Structures are given as structure tokens and as C-alpha cells.
Amino acid sequence: MKKYRRVEGPRQALLTEPFEVRVTAQGKRARNVAYAVSLLTDPVNGFDKIVLKSMGRAMSKSVAVAEIVKRKVPGLHQ
Q1: Angle separating helix axes 29-41 and 59-72, nearest 10 degrees
Q2: What's CA 66's distance to the chain center, in Å?
Q3: What's the whole-model pTM score?
Q4: Which of 8, 22, 43, 48 is 20 to 30 A away from residue 75, measured at CA?
């Protein structure tokens, strides 16, 4: 173990875009839908696009959120 040494490197903060929605397996689907709809329909700080990010078991939930948001926001397409 003498040939190994610990090196402190610069840590990068996990930066998220303001139009990004992270979907997790533990989170509630309704909260993700409400947050995504609020990002799209806010008259002051609204965005014309959002990005849904998920991994693993949350992929099916992310697809469901996308479908629900697509039906709730008029004039929206993939």
C-alpha cells in the first residue's frame, strides 16, 4: 500500500440547467408533472423547452411524465 497515495482533485459541482426536470424512482409523478407544467406555462420566467432526465427504473416514470405534460400544455410537441 505504500505505492498508493491520495490526491485531492478539483470537485465539480453538479450543475443543472434551469429548464431541467430530474425524475427519480422515489419521487411522486404528480410533483414532476406540476413542476414541468409550471416551467412551461410561467408567463415571466417560462421556457419554451424542458429536458426530462432519468436513469434506470425511473425511465418509465419519465416517459409517463412526458406524456402527461404533452396533454396538459396546449400546442406542445416532442
Answers
A1: 40
A2: 11
A3: 0.77
A4: 22
pLDDT of residue 35 exceeding 70, the answer is yes
Residue type, 12: Q
pLDDT (tens digit, 9 = 90+) per residue, 53-71? Answer: 999 999 999 999 999 999 9
Residue 66 neighbours by CB distance under 10 Å: 19
Is residue 39 within 8 A of residue 47, CB to CB? The reply is yes
User: What DSSP string runs through the chain?
Assistant: -TT------PPPP----TTEEE--SSS-HHHHHHHHHHHHH-TTT--S--EEE--GGGHHHHHHHHHHHHHHSTT---
